[in-house]
Amino acid sequence: MNALEQQKQKVTDALRQAAVKAGFVAEGEAPVITLEVPKEKAHGDLATNFAMQMTKTAKKPPRAIAEALLAALDGKAAGVERAEIAGPGFINLFMDKSYLREIVVQAVSQGDDYGRTDFGKGAKVQVEFVSANPTGSLHLGHARGAAVGDALCNVLDFAGFNVEREYYINDAGNQIANLAYSIEARYKQALGQEAAMPEDGYHGEDIVAFGRELAESKGDALLSLPDGERFAFFRQYGLERELDKIKRDLERFRVRFDHWFSETSIYADGLIEPTLAKLRENGHVFEHEGAVWLRTTPFGDDKDRVLIKNDGSYTYLLPDIAYHLNKYSRGYDRMINIWGADHHGYVPRMKAAMEALGEDPAKLTVLIAQMVSLYQGGEKVKMSKRTGKAVTMEDLMDEVGVDATRYFFAMRSTDSHLDFDMDLAVSQSNENPVFYVQYAHARICSVFRQAEEKGIAMPATAEGVDLSPLASEAAYDLLRKIGELPAEVAEAAESLAPHRVVRYVFELASQFHSYYKAERVLTEDEAETRAKLALFLALKHAFVNALRLIGVHAPDRM
């Protein structure tokens, strides 16, 4: 519990004791008391509607209850300097803000762990994200899913959850067969032969390059292989090359996975038949017009779904159900999928399938990452300047950098469409939120360098530093914002909303820039300078830790 939480607890305890003293509740009773930070400073540092909630119990008008509570309140013990009654019975509390200085001590002593909480209590959570078909480059939708997914995992981990990151490799369907046939066609073309691309083939430059590389390294030797063996070679070659590229791009994007789960393993490990058998056993499978169906409508889906087509082949749904059942079998307390906007309709059928299997569908959460539109020069960008094809994640990293790409993708809720302004993302101005935030950290580091040049010793710890010079309104505002980080992390984890951390770090930068303009840090007063350097050290930890959660660097210089 940090200083902000400790102070809220003191006020809560004091209000509860006041309610007992005023005769509204009995000793030992624990009425719910909600404290909020008012949007307007004129309304105090904390506010509560406790008096309004007590009307039924106290059988008095809320203003009369509020007056009695304040008369019985031990303000000194709670750190309350004064209190006001507003409107129908709100109580606005104006605090002695000196308690905020303790935040400096906590942030500096905790360092890289400042902001970490035990909110998750070690609950086991799996997050599956990106999971792009290994048939080409990662596009903008995958990039957004990667940025949000990784940030969410970081937030959950920092909030005390036991997190596992998983990438599901779609390597068993028709798309991989088409990849193999596409590479074979390009290989033959590279040898100077006539070869038509498959109807649903892949026409990317990478496929052309694969064909050319094989022609140069293998000559025409692959043509003499039996059909099945040749197909298996092209399939494996294409899969490995495409996966290698995906992994390289994700590594550059600072995204890692604990587990790469292959769809092929579902077949190799025999997971489909037991899944189908369990659905049959539970009475949710029926046959119609030669196909095998799953009855999902009783579980909220808009129509029943085909599992096995009348030609005996599986639909995409059946192996996906087997995969998700496998997830449940691994003992996660919660599973989170981040899917693209085109998968919106897939959510209710997967949840229905889990319920049909007797599993708890509430354990599975699906976040839909909405579409991304790129803008440059005021116009929508659809094609890469480099290739003339659709813009990829690699293009965006090349054009605007990893920091800006990750920040922009993570700064909006996944369920909202995102307009990505490429000009703004690379601009060296305060209008660019990435520059604005990173410049704040660089300014802090610049102050530290100036202190070193002047021979001013940096405090290694805030313990023992006289922090009483931190008494201005600007300092208190900055301290309060630093102190909000642990609660922001917990709330971002609870609501699965990493964009809250982006908003927090921007507000922290805004508060810092205001303070920097208002007050000198390196002054003639040694005690004041040491206190402010300790404040900046705490601030640096808050910046670095928050930015690390969203995968953005905190540069020392700009």
From TrEMBL:
Q: Could you state a single Gene Ontology molecular function term?
A: arginine-tRNA ligase activity
Can you say where in the cell this protein is located?
A: Cytoplasm
Reaction equation(s) it catalyzes:
tRNA(Arg) + L-arginine + ATP = L-arginyl-tRNA(Arg) + AMP + diphosphate
Motif 'HIGH' region location, chain numbering: 132-142
InterPro entries linked to this entry: aa-tRNA-synth_I_CS, Arg-tRNA-ligase, Arg-tRNA-synth_N, Arg-tRNA-synth_N_sf, ArgRS_core, DALR_anticod-bd, Rossmann-like_a/b/a_fold, tRNAsynth_Ia_anticodon-bd
Q: Which residues form the Arginyl tRNA synthetase N-terminal domain?
A: 9-95
The record's Gene Ontology biological-process terms are: arginyl-tRNA aminoacylation
What GO cellular-component annotations does this UniProt entry give? cytoplasm
Q: In which broad location class does this protein mainly occur, judging by the first location in its UniProt entry? A: cytoplasm
Q: Where is the DALR anticodon binding domain?
A: 437-558
Record Gene3D superfamilies: Arginyl tRNA synthetase N-terminal domain, HUPs, Isoleucyl-tRNA Synthetase, Domain 1
The EC number(s) given in the record are 6.1.1.19
| Domain of life assignment | Bacteria
Q: Which UniProt keywords apply?
A: Aminoacyl-tRNA synthetase, ATP-binding, Cytoplasm, Ligase, Nucleotide-binding, Protein biosynthesis
Record-stated family = Belongs to the class-I aminoacyl-tRNA synthetase family.
Quaternary form? Monomer.
This one is known as Arginine--tRNA ligase
Q: Which organism is it from?
A: Paenibacillus antri
**Gene from which this protein is expressed:** argS
